[in-house]
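Bumping with the actual sequence this time:
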Amino acid sequence: MADSGNPYTPSFVRSSESQEFEAFWRSIRGGALVPSRADFHPSKARRFLRDLVLMEAPSAVSPTLRIRLTGQRFDETIGVDISGRDHLDFMPQEFHAGVLATARAMISRPCGLWQITPAHLVRGYALNLEITAFPLAAGEQDRAFLITHVRPIGDVMSATLPTQNGLSLDTAVAYQFLDIGAGHPALTARAA
């Protein structure tokens, strides 16, 4: 979480939109702990579609977070369509291991994740993104997915990271795992 002892570090609180997205995710689970990718139908998520990012979870064969779908407001906010790209392409190399560990924990535990991540945009400024993510279980011949709700919060800031890919994500300034009924992972790596 944000350092509340530092007067220059903002305090972040989970939004009602984040909580409503969790309620939506819980509504598609049926009797399962984690819904499958087949349980997610965009028509049921109309309220959230503009802010959704759907990505493949890393697997033993492919340690990537391939982005499969981005919502229109998300694309407009960052100024570029990143569908088809690897989420890891948008952050410094030193964060990759922690990001992959977090994604794997979300699938294996399973659990959700809430975080605030600074996004540095090619437009020359940065903003904080509130990210709420939950797992979607793999089908018989499918990979597991992470479904995320991403929305900008707060004021714009000066960009400090290079944006050669159109976007650079910094390490999370606040985060917490969300218990969906299986507890929290014993993971100490910072999420991004």
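The tokens above came from a reply further down the thread. DSSP finds three helices and seven strands in the chain.
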